[in-house]
Design goal:
This protein is an alpha+beta fold. About 15% of the residues lie in helices and about 30% in strands.
Length: about 270
């Protein structure tokens, strides 16, 4: 028997600025069920339908919150279809509600998960249930009841962790000096955040590195902070989320290099 024992609920969506009323609707449903819920807006400007970005946002934020925090993720291009809505509990003590569309397999290894529930019990849903807004009518109320202490087994049947959808994001060591990786996020400054963990390589400060994409190859230095290179110079750095980033000092690497989330690039060491 497993249940939540705090009332913090973090929301992650791709609703954007013009979807603020969608976020407000979810909050209304939650607060109507549990007025004591502490709702945190984590991110609502994820690129529409981007599983890669959603996974990155979860990876870079969830562990900073208290154990037993619940996260509701509404990045759901398959809304209304037969895809499952699932409730996950991790062995580290966090809860997640969202669609089974590949987001969670890009955040957690199966060994990190203790239970997965296929949400089915309409007793806990907000009705009538919209075919286009399961975030409001299924995920939000389930999260609210969970935050009130309802046991997760009440919401549906156990779902095999092995059946979680996989959404591969390329990360491959080609040689001792080359790694093929994926751009998983671009922030407001145009920093290109790769899926290379900073601790997965031994980076040498000041070392010459290069990014290669198609016919384009641009060199830069690995640094510890931006001002180690001239303004608008390309640099490589381990960012605050622990991943290797390609940036420009006071410039915009993403626009200058013409790259976007999901692009596969090669890093030369």
């Amino acid at each position: 028997m497993e249940k939540l024992d705090n009332q913090i609920i973090g929301l992650i969506t791709d609703f954007g600025a013009r979807g603020q009323h969608y976020v407000a609707s979810m909050k209304g449903v939650i607060l109507n069920i549990n007025p004591k819920a502490n709702i945190i807006d984590i991110a609502h400007n994820i690129t529409p339908f981007s599983i890669i970005e959603a996974a990155y946002i979860i990876k870079s934020t969830y562990s900073l919150y208290p154990k037993n925090t619940l996260f509701i993720i509404v990045v759901d291009p398959g809304v209304g279809s037969s895809r499952e809505i699932i409730l996950i509990r991790t062995k580290s003590g966090y809860f997640f509600i969202g669609p089974n569309n590949g987001i969670f397999t890009n955040v957690f290894d199966s060994s990190e998960l203790s239970k997965c529930i296929h949400i089915k019990n309409e007793q806990f849903f907000n009705t009538p249930i919209s075919k286009t807004f399961h975030g409001r009518d299924i995920m939000a109320p389930i999260g609210a009841y969970l935050s009130k202490g309802v046991n997760i087994d009440k919401f549906g049947s156990e779902f095999p962790i092995a059946k979680l959808i996989d959404f591969p994001i390329e990360l491959k060591k080609i040689s001792d000096t080359e790694i093929r990786c994926t751009i998983q996020y671009i922030d407001e400054f145009g920093n290109l955040i790769t899926n290379i963990q900073g601790n997965s390589l031994i980076f040498k400060e000041g070392a010459d590195m290069a990014i290669r994409t198609g016919e384009q190859k641009i060199r830069g230095n690995f640094v510890k902070f931006f001002e180690e290179v001239f303004v608008n110079s390309l640099l490589f750095i381990v960012g605050s989320s622990g991943f290797l980033e390609i940036s420009k000092n006071q410039g915009n690497a993403a626009s200058d290099l013409g790259l976007k989330v999901g692009d596969v690039i090669t890093i030369e060491l």
